[in-house]
Write a structure and sequence with these properties.
Blueprint (H helix, E strand, L loop, with lengths): L15 H11 L3 H10 L5 H10 L3 H20 L2 E5 L11 E4 L6 H12 L6 E5 L6 H9 L2 E4 L5 H20 L5 E4 L14 H7 L7 H6 L3 E8 L5 H13 L7 H13 L4 E6 L4 H7 L5 H18 L5 H11 L10 H16 L8 H26 L5
Parallel strand pairs: 1-7, 2-5, 2-6, 3-4, 3-5
Antiparallel strand pairs: 6-7
């Protein structure tokens, strides 16, 4: 094992030697206990806390605690979680699983659940420090194999943080022999039109040796496409679109982020599908190297976007939203009138949840339009990929 260039203790998952000490502290935290009570009956709490006290490593925590918890969550908030493209997975390789971003918490959690069901190793998970609003959340995620992405730093501090993050990811892949999950962009695409941030690819290339492409090849990037039938946060996103329309300077509060996390975690998501695709190494060889890093990042980002877009699972709600948005019947064969009415009723129920004063009819129509855009964009992007840009 190589000696790492950086000290990663402030961003890496907790080492198993720290596990018991950190867990003992966590189970006494009022905020943690409040969150647990939100997801399970009060009478089950003492048994859970007793089990947590006995666990002294991340593997047992994931298999004995998180696995059944995620299965419970999948049973109560989804119509099933499926994983495709398993033929592209080689157990002798560690990957960077690079995905589109739909849910703040569950994208990586449900992917790891799909892995646990098959006896596959889970991945370490990148999580932004902007979400670690309490110290106990920081402890919980690092006990659960998460590492920290430092955001909202100054320019110089940001560059150093990016170099350290890049070095950690490479260290995790090559020396710790762990796979990594990271989203293709900072934050979710509010309109569900998913595109890889070139800055993410540049960050990954800050460590290692060789050309831009050679550095990325060493990370075994595997694009994984995530599809949710329903987005529990759709009405919150529509509300945010309206607030930004009213005031371009609008910024979400910490409370807004916490409520989004809670809503995504506990509300119904319908079917959830993960589609693994071939790692991009072969295609990196095919496109060749570019002297200009900006051009290289653009091409590699397009490769990843292509893989994710063509692999979306398209549900009836996506076809219906497209036809409603365009006032067409282009995809009428993909659904029946009963399904269309159910979807229209769903959209209206979601919009009724928006808590804002003095919403005009025109503003409600705008929020409806944005919800239709959210649900039709995965279909549009898939069609562009499959039909060579023709939609």
């Amino acid at each position: 094992m190589n000696t790492p260039e950086y000290n990663f203790t402030d961003i890496s998952p907790y080492d198993d030697s720290q596990f018991h000490e950190k867990m003992e502290k966590l189970i006494k935290e009022p905020g943690f206990l409040h969150a647990i009570r939100y997801t399970m009956p009060e009478e089950d709490l003492p048994k859970l806390l007793s089990e947590l006290e006995k666990i002294d490593n991340k593997h047992d925590f994931q298999t004995k605690i998180m696995y059944p918890f995620l299965e419970m969550l999948a049973k109560t908030t989804t119509s099933g979680i499926s994983l495709g493209g398993i033929k592209y997975y080689n157990p002798s390789i560690n990957y960077v699983f690079l995905t589109n971003h739909r849910d703040i918490v569950l994208d990586a959690s449900f992917l790891n659940l799909a892995f646990l069901r098959r006896g596959m190793p889970t991945s370490e998970v990148a999580i932004g420090n902007n979400l670690l609003v309490f110290e106990w959340i920081n402890d919980l995620v690092r006990l659960n194999k998460s590492f920290i992405v430092k955001r909202n730093t100054g320019l110089r501090e940001g560059l150093e943080a990016a170099k350290k993050l890049s070095a950690y990811i490479r260290y995790a892949i090559l020396d710790k022999h762990e796979s990594i999950w990271i989203a293709q962009r900072e934050g979710r695409a509010k309109d569900s039109s998913d595109h890889t941030q070139e800055s993410l690819l540049k960050m990954l290339s800050l460590s290692g040796e060789g050309t831009f492409n050679e550095k990325l090849e060493g990370l075994n990037i595997m694009p994984v496409s995530i599809s949710y039938e329903y987005d529990p946060n759709d009405y919150l996103k529509a509300r945010e679109f309206l607030l930004r329309r009213r005031d371009p300077q609008f910024k979400k509060s910490q409370r807004d982020d916490l409520f989004s996390m809670e809503t995504g975690l506990l509300q119904f998501k319908g079917k959830v599908h993960f589609q693994m695709t071939p790692r991009i190494n072969t295609k990196l060889d095919q496109i060749g190297d570019f002297r200009d890093t900006n051009t290289a990042a653009k091409y590699v980002g397009a490769l990843i976007d292509n893989a994710i877009h063509r692999s979306y699972e398209i549900f009836p709600i996506n076809y219906i939203a497209y036809d409603m948005l365009h006032e067409s019947k282009r995809f009428a064969r993909k659904y029946n009138e009963e399904q269309r009415q159910e979807v229209e009723d769903y959209f209206n129920r979601q919009l009724n949840k928006v808590e804002l004063d003095d919403v005009t009819e025109e503003e409600r129509n705008y929020m409806m339009e944005m919800m239709l855009v959210m649900y039709s964009n995965p279909l549009k992007n898939k069609l562009k990929t499959l039909l060579g840009g023709i939609v």
